[in-house]
From TrEMBL:
PANTHER family: CYTOCHROME P450, P450, PUTATIVE (EUROFUNG)-RELATED. This is Cytochrome P450. Its cofactor is heme. Keywords: Heme, Iron, Metal-binding, Monooxygenase, Oxidoreductase, Signal. Belongs to the cytochrome P450 family.
């Protein structure tokens, strides 16, 4: 039996590998700065098939061509698990990130997205107020660390919807919403660098992991009295009590569907939604503003687009007005394409073996990924992919308008919007777990960008001649958070 087990056929034996040496040394290459280059090498060589890559996870990852997306999409959660993949990536065993929380995605889909037309005005108010508070109000050019400022602006505007107007500017909420993710990512980095066998001993004892646990405790202590007050007010059934219209309340109200939640769960959900929403939205907006600073010629065109859309709505950020900002939408979609925040998406842990249509068996235990970053630079999909073309997707949508109906036209438009999800638009993932918060993110980013375009001018500091390069590590690519730009109020 031992011999049989040792010599059992490996279904992945024919799948090519990227990187040099055995799994441990390939993992080392991955964590020491070569991850993005390894993914790109794999995509160039095996674009239409599959390749193996050693990541910090204990098992190898299989990167699969987007040719197979339709068959992958149809596989159920007990074959391909989103939660288990996130749990491995985020070292949840040690960081205690809760991943199996269907209530979160459900609340975003069922309560937040349909409420957007109702919530737009209050989110826009918060955006304007947060920008007034955080950005310089002078017509002199002033140097700002825009990434830091945007973190606070996004946390406040998102907080208005997540936790309500009274608390979204509370420094304790802002600290948790912003820094939980920072601490979590730092802990994940440290644990990922530990040899797999040593993690059970070393990880719980290392400072970054302890810091994440302490932060979870703080969030619980902050939220407990708020939840208790809401429960009390509801129990008293006073006719004057108006139930808050925010995510915390929607989750509290969904208890019947998802089972009783204790206060600690609710605090974890708040941290979970901040983790999913705040840094992703901030990175996208920072990428946009760094690009605007380096390409000032885009400002008048985008400003006019925003002015036209808002003049039709009397200056209000209605859903329709934001849909009309088609050039801004195209610019932001190009930002997602040109600055992919991760080399891959649709990371799924394989729980049961399955066979692809080319006959390749994918065994249980591995993680599969789709090559989101390299697809975005594939010249068969995007002509002149290394050119940043702010109107690339605007032109695509116009071409569709002219072409009328038809499969090709439908495909073009399906891939041409900021919120698009498709085989060539993988920033928000794919299939049933594709980001449910992208509609909220799109509105929030448009509100911030539109207000910025109308009220401010931006440029790179003296002596800086190129857009800041993004920082790449472990398959991620983030705008450099240490850089500054110059802005002035109009
Ligand atoms: C530009 C901003 C954002 C980006 C780039 C982004 C990206 C992603 C990605 C790549 C996934 C995984 C999808 C997959 O693997 O198929 C995801 C999932 C998720 N996102 Fe976002 N996201 C953003 C904003 C938000 C916001 C604002 C919220 C909340 C309001 C949110 C809530 C979620 C949730 C709850 C999930 C898990 C979905 C599930 O469990 O099925 N995201 N996001």
């Amino acid at each position: 039996l031992v011999l049989q087990w040792l010599f059992r056929p490996d279904p992945l034996a024919t799948v090519p590998v990227v990187g040099e040496g055995n799994k441990a040394s390939r993992r080392k290459q991955f964590v020491s700065g070569q991850a993005n280059a390894l993914y790109s090498e794999g995509y160039k060589k095996f674009r239409d098939g599959l390749f193996r890559i050693a990541t910090p996870r204990s098992t190898e990852s299989i990167v699969i061509s987007t040719k197979f997306v339709n068959e992958l999409r149809n596989l159920p959660d007990d074959v391909l698990s989103f939660d288990k993949a996130v749990s491995e990536t985020m070292q949840a065993k040690y960081t205690r990130l809760q991943t199996e929380v269907p209530a979160l995605a459900h609340t975003v889909k069922a309560s937040l997205t349909p409420a957007l037309p109702r919530l737009n005005a209050s989110v826009a108010d918060e955006v304007v107020e947060a920008m007034r508070q955080e950005l310089p109000q002078t017509s002199d050019w002033t140097e700002v660390n825009i990434n830091y400022k945007l973190l606070r602006i996004v946390a406040m505007a998102s907080g208005r919807v997540f936790i309500g107007s009274e608390l979204c500017r509370d420094e304790r909420y802002l600290d948790a919403a912003i820094n939980y993710t920072v601490d979590l990512v730092a802990a994940v980095e440290v644990v990922s660098r530990m040899p797999v066998w040593s993690r059970p001993f070393l990880a719980p004892r290392c400072e970054p992991v302890k810091k994440v646990h302490a932060r979870m405790q703080q969030a619980d202590e902050f939220l407990r009295p708020i939840v208790a007050a809401r429960r009390n007010a509801e129990a008293q059934a006073s006719p004057d009590y108006v139930k808050p219209d925010d995510m915390l309340q929607w989750i509290m109200d969904s208890q019947k569907k998802f089972g009783e939640k204790n206060d600690e769960d609710l605090a974890n959900y708040q941290l979970g939604v901040s983790f999913a929403a705040i840094h992703t939205t901030t990175m996208t907006t920072t990428n946009a503003i760094y690009t605007l600073a380096a390409m000032p010629e885009l400002t008048p065109m985008l400003r006019e687009d925003v002015q036209q859309a808002l003049s039709a709505s009397g200056g209000q950020f209605t859903s329709l007005a934001m849909q009309k900002m088609r050039k801004l939408d195209s610019f932001l979609r190009e930002i997602l394409r040109y600055y992919p925040i991760a080399a891959t998406s649709f990371n799924r842990k394989v729980l049961k073996p399955f066979t692809l249509s080319n006959g390749q068996v994918i065994p249980a235990g591995v993680v599969i990924e789709l090559p989101a970053g390299d697809v975005a630079f594939d010249e068969d999909l995007f002509p002149a992919p290394h050119v940043f073309d702010a109107l690339r997707f605007y032109k695509m949508r116009q071409a569709k308008d002219q072409a009328g109906s038809g499969v090709k036209a439908a495909e073009a438009v399906a891939n041409a919007q900021f919120v698009s999800v498709g085989a060539s638009s993988l920033t928000f993932g794919y299939g049933r777990h594709a980001c449910p918060g992208r509609f909220f993110a799109a509105n929030e980013i448009k509100m911030i960008m539109a207000t910025f375009l109308l009220d401010y001018e931006v440029r790179l500091p003296e002596g800086v001649t190129e857009r800041y390069k993004n920082l790449e590590f472990s398959g991620q690519s983030v705008p450099d958070p240490t850089k500054t730009i110059l802005i002035r109020k109009l």
